[in-house]
Amino acid sequence: MHIIGKYFSLAIAIMFARTSSSFISTLTNHAFRRSTVNPALLSGLTNLRTKQVGTKNNSDYHVNSKHWMSDSTSSSSNVPVPTDDVQAAREARKAEKERQKAENKAKQEEKLAQEVEANRIENVTYLSFDEQENYNKMGDMTLVMSRSRTNRQFTDIADLEDSEKYPIGSKVWVRGRLQSIRVKGGSCFIVLRQNSFHTVQALFFKDKEDPDGSKKMLNYLKTLTVESIVDLEGRIVGDANVKSCSVQTIELSIERIHAVSKAQPQLPFLVEDAARSEAEVEASQSTDRPFPRLGQELRLDNRWMDLRTPANNAIMRIQSAVCQLFRESLYSQGFMEIHTPKLIAGESESGAGVFTTDYFGTTACLAQSPQLYKQMAISADMERVFEIGPVFRAENSNTRRHLCEFTGLDLEMAIKDHYMETLEVIHKCFVHIFTGLEQRYAKELSVIREQYHSEPLTFTEEPCVVHWPDAQEILKEKGFDVGDGMGDLNGAMELALGEAVKEKYGTDFFMLDKYPSQIRPFYTMPDPVDDRFSNSYDMFIRGLEICSGAQRCHDPELVQQMLAKKGIEPGEGLKSYISSFQDGVSPHAGAGIGLERVVFLYLGLDNVRKASMFPRDPNRCTP
Description:
The chain contains 19 helices and 16 strands.
């Protein structure tokens, strides 16, 4: 039975053997190494090997029974080597496998390409609303290059809840920024933002009657990135309760959507993070999901992103409103707007740093103020003038309230008797600004105060004027060393004075006059009683200066005396200035106001840079 078992094993091996002659040789050698060999089995193996290999001119593969009968310890080098035909057959089989593999791969690639083609979403060249049904319902909009007027009627998000204009079920086109998007399963929810603080939710659900179209729409929605600009046509759906959006009672069911301008996937920061208040960020630090605290430099490096937040965008709107209200008030008081040079031959403000530049071989300065030209306008019989324009100060002041370039709100006016006439005009102007902001821009102020908390500004109906000697006494009472009372106020003194005035008079806005002459510019009119002091004044909001002004020296001889007293040599620019007075000029006074300072302090911000669109300071000249 033991022998039968061995032969049976060999027979099974032969049944499953490949037709390779080397493999059969191995089986044959294996049989002869056994202790007992059946001649019949040996003969069968020999015949099989002979048929496989062939006998024509193949002496290397001639069956040698004596060799097969050798001892089982024979070396493997005695095993016959395959012929060229066998090797060719083996390579042919290998090639066939490679061919089949390549064929299968090609079929898979073709199938994948077909799927990609089936799901491919072409760009949409939208030319006309009348041809809209011929366009795909989704896809990136071809670059807008003024090809045509499409005649689409776009809707402001802020107006969507007007049921008379936009009843439930009506369709609207909206262009907005993609504030957020969430695609899950067969649904998608997005929030569109317009003008930074108007938002609406739009949604899409898989349509069982159009599964292919729904799949394509969902695939496209997945490609959209946050902060992209999109055009969306949607049907108004009522009975909504979307507390996270400014439009809360309706939603838009998406029917068409096209990306007009895609944002990069990786943004410098999220607008959502930049829009949180400091209190909210601080409170989150003790939780398991703290909100990121964005530094000022990161924000300013990417200012266009920072200004997309509702509060920061609204600050720029308040800045614009201050200019508008400033113009309104002065126009109503008989002023005209002028535009003075910003490239001048010499300094316009003594004691203030100046930027210089080459001017065709000579040195020119960037104007530190329109001061000289405002006064020359009075000499030109323009009795009341104002200007809104850039001001440049080359002062290396790295504080929260200083900038190297800011916008000046300047005015100058002829007076009859006293500079108080000018203070009354300026006070009236500021009252118009303050009341106008609270009444006309309540929404913007609410948005700003939600992120940057502040209380509304308090002010008096009539000018609140504090005189220099009284201010010195207040500061002494608060523990300040004012010396001989002839030095300028520092920031701490201004704040302390502001607190005292608020406590005594109940106002955040006040004026301080009669500054010492030695700390005022050369063109300031001295006090008629004591020329150590001057007919000058500053104005303050929340204890910080926003405006500086004075009655001007309109007598040419007095101007020259003041220049000599301060050690200033009149240059070409000042010669023209003095000449304009020699030809006769009305007594006059005026003021220069810093726009960014007004906005910064009115809103109670912590840094003037928040009130500047693209601030310039000693360390920043970009973006």
